Write the structure tokens for this entry.
Amino acid sequence: MKKILITGGAGFIGSHVVRLFVNKYPDYQIVNLDKLTYAGNLANLSDIENKPNYSFIKGDIVDAAFVNELFSQHKFNGVIHLAAESHVDRSISNPLEFVMTNVIGTVNLLNASKAYWFQHLNNEKTPLDFRFYHVSTDEVYGTLGETGMFTETTAYDPHSPYSASKASSDHFVRAYHDTFGLDTVISNCSNNYGSYHFPEKLIPLSIYNIKNNKPIPVYGKGENIRDWLFVEDHANAIDVIFHNAKAGTTYNIGGHNEWTNIDLIRLLCKIMDEKLQRPEGESAKLITFVKDRAGHDLRYAIDSSKLKNELGWTPSLQFEEGLEKTVDWFLSHQEWLNNVTSGDYKKYYNEQYVKR
Ligand code: NAD
Ligand code: TYD
């Protein structure tokens, strides 16, 4: 029996990780800790919320007393840490919020893990079966030119307040391994897409706007390149790494799937025309070039050969297939999308759940 704390489990990627672990490991107890910020939505987990091996706790990782108390109440065998502020544009408007959650919140979890781990070592004289898995991003490596890829040894060079806060948290995680001997693992993943993606990010925002005949904002000339990975492939990679990586290691996760933003949006418009039975080219008329993002990284590309060679993980889906699947999901989950865009999920679903 393992008890795993998953932070940020009500968010986009976290909800997929929670679902995978709850369904795949009925012997594990999965505890989902989430503050339910604007990005946290318990409707993302409605299909598994009544499973006996799942429980939810509303709480803020920035609150050290709360985090310490949580670790004194539960005997966790592992933490999979996804809770974060995750949107680059929001980090430009409010950097401090990113420092609080992404840096201070991570250090609070590390401190609680360390104290719990040392306490066990002192009392039991045997090492505890415990791992701290930190989910990070390829954005910590900065930006690439036209060639090259990020490997696990690429020097950190973050440019946005978001990536700077994630880079800082990665350094703290490594420091707790190197200084205190805590069993830590980090993965740095490329851009994810798929179901339950919050519609402030490029792909779900574009799907929503196309569906509703609103302009699709393309920053700058749309020439920036991202390496896209289907979110369920990311969740599977996290499962493989959590269970098999050696302590103190890092793995890059990516899809070998680079697209300029404008090519991606044109492909999306084509799929949407077909799905909505619009004349070909109709949705692309919504493309609107807008002012570029400040400090906009030009290109990300992940070399995930270490993960493939050492742990045997490869992505399962081709991008075109994954994107069509994602469009189908959004078009058949109008209620989810409408609740999220109107904010109703905050008023009804989350509050109702927390009161229960
Ligand atoms: P998200 O914004 O969809 O979800 C974040 C979750 O964290 C939300 O449920 C939110 O309520 C919760 N949260 C925020 N602040 C909290 C706090 N102080 N205490 C407790 N919970 C809090 O993010 P996501 O896109 O699912 O990303 C999850 C993780 O994966 C992040 O660490 C992010 O840096 C990383 N990541 C994301 C991507 C991507 O493409 N989205 C790629 C690589 C890595
Ligand atoms: P985003 O989904 O915000 O992810 P990230 O910034 O973490 O890579 O953005 C993906 C790319 O799309 C990025 O190059 C910025 C660009 N973008 C737009 O062109 N328009 C938009 O409305 C958004 C949200 C992003």
